Amino acid sequence: MNMLFISDIHGSATALDQALAWKQRLDSNVLVLLGDLLNHGPRNPIPDGYDPQAVASTLSTLADQIIAVRGNCDSEVDQMLCGFPLLAEYNWLLLEGRRLCLTHGHRLGPDNLPPLAPGEGIAFGHTHIPMAEWRQDRLHFNPGSVTLPRNGQPASFGHFDGERLRVMDMAGNTLASASWKRE
């Protein structure tokens, strides 16, 4: 399975287009959206290329490839614009018989893990800070933010090639990486 992970688009059509160019380059057949898709949120500046309707339209063309979860800035109004379900608080992927919990990170996250067995993991956004590492035998994966990166990090997205989860910047540099098989 080849998956692209995007979090915290915050309505930027420009940032989404850049990330989706990587979906095509990496030949990803699944798009995992970890929340905060359309709205920039009251604490954030209005991002470059802010066009929530264009973001909803673009993502809706990929509806049959999307697994999405709700972010703290996502609402029922956003759901009305999108042709795929986006209001689940969390979801699960089953990879090689082990679970990866998908969530935004504002409720479940590294400080409030769902029940995970050793060797399983959590993929989350919310902090806008890239991460791919094993902690106490659980994988913690955050693709960062395509729109509003924090802590001096570049805009980034995540990729799973069937073996490794990587966080990459828009130039294709790997910022963080972890094997799905415990290292």
From TrEMBL:
It is an enzyme of class 3 (hydrolase). Keywords: Metal-binding. Coiled coil: none annotated. Its cofactor is a divalent metal cation. Residues 1-161 form the Calcineurin-like phosphoesterase domain. It holds the Pfam family Metallophos_2. It comes from the Bacteria. The keyword Metal-binding applies. This is Phosphoesterase. The lineage of its organism: Bacteria, Pseudomonadati, Pseudomonadota, Gammaproteobacteria, Alteromonadales. The gene is yfcE.
